[in-house]
Structures are given as C-alpha cells and as structure tokens.
Write a structure and sequence with these properties.
Radius of gyration: 29 Å
CATH architecture of one domain: Sandwich
CATH superfamily of one domain: Immunoglobulins
CATH class of one domain: Mainly Beta
Strand content: 15-25%
Number of strands: 33
Strand order of the largest sheet: 12-13-16-17-20-21-22-23
Distance between the termini: 98 Å
CATH topology of one domain: Immunoglobulin-like
C-alpha cells in the first residue's frame, strides 16, 4: 500500500513538472495567435470570474492539461504559452455565475469554442452533456448540469497562417460589371464526373480547373458561396436523418467549415480563392452574424452562451429569455462594442487573410438594429463605413428579418448593395401574366430608382434576381404551382406558399410538348429580364441548364440529389439554355447602357435632344397614363438611349441605344418599332422565342411580331440592313 502511495505521488509530481509554462501575454489580438515563438491566447468575457485553457491531443479526443489564463485586462482574459505551436488543440472552460434570471449561464463543465478559432477539429455529437441544464429537472434552464461536454464537442486548433499566394491579385471587378453566381461548395461538384471522387463536394473540388473554367465560360464575374463559416447540424435534423445543408447555423465565425475540406488544412480554402482570382473571378461569402447555433434558453452551451451570454446576445427585459428577431432562437447583440469588434474582426480576417472579395449578409437588418429599432447609422454599419478594409470589398445586405420594422429594402447606407425581392416578385408575376403589373415591372427593370436613387447611390445597389437558394429554382418556378417540401419531414408546412409561380397547366414534369416549349421560353424570359435590367444581376447555379429540386422550395435540409447539381441530366434543353445564358451575358457586357450606374428618369435632355429612357407602347408612341393604368395591358418597351448620360470616359458601346420589348400576353403582338435615324438600323440581339438566332442587322419594317410571352432586345447600329429575316 505504501509503495502504491509513493508511486501515485511521483506520478503527480511528474505531471506537475510537465505542466506548460504560462506567461501573462497580451489582451490583443483576441483568439489564439502564433508569433513564431509561442501562442498568445486572449478571450473577451466581461462577467467571467476565471477562464481555463484546456489543451487536447492532436485529434481532440483526450484532454491533456488545464491552464488558468493568468491575466485580465480590459475585460479580456489572456495568457501566453511559449512552448505552444501551430497544431495545438484547445478549448475553454469559463467560470462565473450561473444566474439565468440575470442573463448569466456560465458552466465550466461545458467546454466552449473560442469565438476567434481559425480551425475546428472533430465533429460535434449531440447529447444531454452539451446543455447547461438538466433535461429532467422541472426548472429546465434554471437547473444546473454538471456533466462534462468535452467528449462531444469540436475543439479549436492553432494555425500557422503562412501561405504562398503567388502572383494572382484580387480581380477588383467594378460594381457596374459585376454578375453574381450563387452556389454551394458541396452541391456544385458532388456529382461532377470531371472532379476526382475524393475532391467532390470540397474546396479542392470547387477549385478544379474544369469547374473554375466552366464558371468563367458563363461570363459571370463572381461566385457567391452559401455559408462556409463552421456550422453544425441541428439536433432535430440529425434525429430525422437529415443535415443542415445550407449552413445557416454558425458556430465559429473565423473557421472554414471542416466538412468541405478534403485535406483538413485551411490552405485548401486559400488555394481555391487563389485559383478563382487567377481566372479573374471574385469570391463572395454568404455570412451569418445575426444568430448562432446555440438557440434559445433551452439550447446547448457551445461557445458564446458559456463565455458571456449577457454580452453576446440580445436578451429580453427579464434577462432569462432571448430576443428572437431571427426565428432561430437567439439574436447576436450588435449593440455591444466587443460583439461589433468580433464581427468586424471576422470580416477583416476573411478579406485580408483569406482574400475573399465581399460578403452577402444574411438577415442584415439585424446587424443594423439598435434597441430602438433599425438604424442605418447604427454601430455596425458605422464600423463598416469607416473601416479601410471593409470599404474596399463588396457588401450586400439581405435587408429583412422577422423583427419589428424588419423590412428595410432600399434603406441601407451608401456603399451597400441589397437583395431586391420587389424585383423578384414583380418579374415573376409579370411573366405569369398577372394583371396590372406593368408600372411595377417598369420600376424594377429600370433600376428600382424609387428605392435606391438617393444619396448618390447607383443602380448597382439593387441586386436583381428571380431565384436564389431559398425558394423555387428556375425550372421549378415554371413547373409547379405549389411547394413540395415533404422530404423535410414537416408535412409540407415549411417554406413559403406565395411563390408567384406557374406550372403552365401540369404540376411537375410532363410529356406535353406544348407545355414544355412554353416553360423553356418562360425560363429564357426570366433569365433575360434579370441579365438585361438595370442593376446587379444574380443567377442561381444550375438555373442555366434547368436543374430541378422536384418542387422543393425550402431545401435547407436536403444534402442529397435534390440539391446536388446533376451535370449529366441537363439534356438538349439544358445545353440550349446554357448557351442562351452566355449570350445574354455577352449582350449585357457589349452594351454598357444596360449596366451603367446612373439611374434613368425619363427627363428630356434639350441639349442632346434625347431622353435617357422612353417607355413605348405597341403603337410605337410613348406610353400615356391611361395605358399605364390599364390593368390588362401586358406589352410595352423600354428604350435606353446611352447618349443621354455623358461621362468623362467613353467606352466602346457607351452611347449605344437599346430597346427591350416585353410581351406577357399569350397572343402575338405586332409591335411598332421606334423610328431610326437615316443610315442606322436595328440589330437583333435577343429573341426569347428564337434563342439560337444570331445577331444581325435586319430590315424589320415598321413592326416586330412579338410572340406571346416573349422578350426581344434590339440594338441601334450604323449601316444598312444585311438580312431580311433572322438567321437561325
């Protein structure tokens, strides 16, 4: 027995001797920072009483040591480990009051993720140990659970940020030339046969030359990736055998999502960015800073909740419950200085260290909401406005949430672009043939000046789209009247019901050739409207070749063939639609009047004897108020004269004149064309009824026979007609 006591005592001495040496370190920068000699750890918590740094083995499975961070400066706990190196795996245990009614939920039995973690290790496993309270206790979240969560938690890893970027630089595409292409890291390449099996669905797969060159061949200028910040699968989805496919469930704002990494190294993400920049393409990230994966008072303790719940989240007046402006259970407190700092630091990290080119902010209204409501001069937006890094990247808002005063389209400050759902709904409804849509449709295709023409904002501030990840994709928009979300296991109760969609007579797939022909033309109408309207166009990946989600308009949990792009199943229709999409983008690029930043007003310029825009009726005359007020009118034209907006720099095609004719009638309309000056003629650019027609000068006579439900674009050129009919 004595020998055992001596042995045990010696083991304890040995463990003490092996303990890491810790120094006081610095309170800045926050997170774990390798300086070439050691690692500085710094964690903000205004209400903690003690912070333990927990070190783990390389796989994050065995806890090796706990070290108290020795210093507390300006509400930051910090310490420096001179022997620590990149690859060190760690987490925190934060001590403090467990007083839910006061907003405090500290529980050192719960290992928590560093909000500034640059890389995560392992996979989160759901279990009651993740929760700070006892499930079986009658007081629920007021109770205290002392079980250890470390075995179920992901861990943080210290990184070496070094990376050889080589010669490629950021493309810095001007806003007026920008075209977004929204896609998903996994879904874009999971079924792509040209990508090696091991790389499909990963950052490496997305950077494959065949994939990158395909994106470039379309003519778009930027891919917009659905969330790549580390996120988790919701427990209720896991229980149903589903996953959080979209990724709007963030856990760490600085770490790339591990499931998309083939190598497990953040250099894989940087390589992807480098490859796209070399091809002249920008990378935009869809980011989720409005809420986290920790949910409400009954949610797990994974990071912010256990570090300083009262600082990081917006709490109700009683402090126990969370304000839920996001619909996800919690709302990040963007009125707190340190929280603003965390989000701004995250954005700068992705812009500077990862070299991405911009951000699309999910539920961005929340980021601008102060306790008194939405404020375009609020702390976060002011921080972005004055930040030299964030001033140099593209910032795009989704300008709505479910909170009070949550709908703010057109209300973000100068420098921001915004998703424009008014464009989406008006364009869908117009081509569906709804009555009385012409005035609203005209506002949207001309740049939504009623919303954005103020404070020097430009037409690029409106991001024009008809489809996005959320809702029907293009194929399903013209194939289904109703949502079909049964695969989500919620009895089709989830997802929007007001889709402004039309199945053209049959719900879903059909062999009816007349219906299929009309559906294909409607796809072309919708694509042409997006790509030839004033504003910044956004396409949804797969729309260009007719990908279907089988009527699902809320595919957030479908990590399977419903959402993965099937590159082999596009057929002849898909190939034709893809070529037509390229053609539209080429037309937009060759006629700058379509993308010029100034808003059109219809004001007559007596010096130049032109208007910047004229609205033409089928008779060839300018629209009268009576014609605008006619609810049954469904055919008109927008005439854009580039000469009406002089600029200091004249580019090729700068003064081009383009007429866009829209006919959402089901019948043919003989449209009288605007007269042309002597020595000029109209050139056919696009006819959605003849997608393969090549551009050529034509003598159309006085009228153009507009097929029912079709769009035609004509450009005014010098010279004599060289064809009597379109060349097919």
């Amino acid at each position: 027995m004595e020998k055992q006591r001596v042995s045990s005592s010696l083991a304890q001495v040995a463990r003490r001797l092996k303990r890491s040496v810790v120094r006081e370190g610095k309170p800045f920068p926050l997170g774990a920072t390798w300086d070439g000699l050691g690692v500085n750890f710094a964690l903000f918590s205004a209400h903690a009483a003690r912070v333990e740094l927990c070190l783990f083995d390389a796989r994050g499975e065995r806890e090796l040591e706990r070290i108290d961070l020795p210093e507390y400066t300006d509400e930051v706990w910090h310490g420096y480990l001179p022997n620590a190196r990149p690859g060190t795996v760690y987490g925190y245990r934060v001590h403090g009051p467990f007083e839910p009614d006061a907003g405090h939920r500290f529980n050192p039995n719960k290992l928590v993720i560093d909000p500034y973690a640059k890389q995560l290790v392992g996979q989160l496993k759901w279990g009651p140990q993740l929760f700070g309270y006892r499930f079986d206790h009658p007081d629920k979240d007021r109770s205290f659970d002392d079980s250890d969560s470390a075995a179920l938690m992901q861990k943080c890893r210290v990184i070496d940020p070094a990376f050889t970027w080589g010669s490629p630089r950021k493309p810095d595409t001007p806003w007026e030339q920008t075209i977004f292409y929204e896609t998903h890291v996994k879904g874009f390449t999971q079924l792509h046969l040209m990508v090696p099996q091991a790389e499909r669905g990963t950052y490496a797969g997305l950077s494959h030359a065949h994939v990158r060159d395909y994106v470039r061949s379309l003519g778009v200028t930027a891919i917009e990736l659905l969330p790549v910040h580390a996120f988790i699968d919701d427990s209720y989805l896991v229980e149903k055998g589903l996953r959080n496919y979209w990724g709007y469930n963030s856990l760490a704002f600085f770490a790339p999502e591990p499931r998309y990494s083939r190598t497990g190294d953040i250099a894989e993400f940087k390589t992807m960015v480098n490859q796209y920049h070399a091809a002249g393409l920008e990378i935009i990230l869809d980011v989720v800073y409005n809420h986290t994966a920790e949910g409400n008072e009954l949610g797990p303790t994974l990071s912010l909740k256990g570090i300083d719940n009262a600082s990081y989240y917006r709490l109700a007046p009683d402090r126990r419950y969370y304000i839920n402006d996001t619909g996800t259970g919690n709302t990040v407190n963007m009125s707190h200085q340190r929280v603003i700092q965390m989000v701004a630091d995250s954005l700068r990290y992705w812009a500077n260290e990862m070299r991405v080119d911009g951000f699309r902010f999910d539920l961005a209204t929340i980021l601008a909401r102060e306790p008194h409501g939405f404020d375009e001069g609020g702390g976060f937006l002011d921080a972005c406005r004055q930040d030299p890094t964030l001033n140099g990247v593209k910032l795009i808002a989704e300008p709505w949430d479910i909170g009070p005063g949550g709908y703010q389209v057109g209300q973000f400050p100068p420098g921001w672009a915004e998703w424009n759902d008014k464009f989406r709904d008006a364009v869908r409804s117009f081509w569906k043939g709804d009555p009385g849509l012409m005035p609203e449709f005209a506002k949207r295709i001309s740049g939504s000046g009623d919303l954005f023409d103020k404070r020097g904002r430009k037409t690029w501030a409106t991001v024009n789209f008809v489809t996005a990840h959320d809702g029907f994709n293009l194929n399903d928009l013209v194939s289904y009247n109703d949502k079909h979300n049964e695969a989500n296991g919620e009895d089709n109760r989830d997802g929007h019901s007001n889709n402004h969609s039309w199945n053209h007579g049959v719900e879903g797939e059909t062999t009816d050739s007349a219906i299929n022909t009309l559906r294909e033309r409607q796809k072309r109408n919708l694509l042409a409207t997006v790509l030839l309207s004033k504003g910044t166009p956004m396409l949804l990946a797969g729309d260009e070749f007719g990908h279907s989600q089988r009527g699902t308009n809320n595919a957030y949990a479908q990590d399977n063939e419903i959402t993965w792009l099937d590159w082999l199943d596009s057929g002849s229709h898909g190939q034709s639609l893809r070529e037509f999409t390229k053609k539209l983008i080429a037309v937009r690029r060759s006629h700058p009047v379509l993308s010029r930043g100034r808003f059109v007003t219809g004001t007559y310029n007596d010096r130049l004897d032109v208007k910047d825009v004229a609205w033409i009726s089928p008779t060839g005359e300018e629209m009268t108020q009576g014609q605008w007020d006619d609810a049954n009118a469904k055919c008109f034209a927008m005439l854009l004269d580039g000469r009406a907006q002089e600029t200091g720099i004249i580019r090729r095609g700068e003064d081009s004149t383009v007429v866009l004719i829209y006919n959402s009638h089901h019948d043919v309309v003989n449209f009288t064309l605007p007269s042309v000056p002597e020595g000029q003629c109209w050139e056919l650019l696009v006819d959605t009824n003849a997608p393969d027609a090549r551009s050529a000068r034509h003598d159309f006579g006085e009228t153009y026979a507009m097929t029912g439900r079709s769009l035609v674009a004509l450009g005014l050129v010098a010279g004599r007609p060289d064809h009597a009919t379109p060349v097919i």
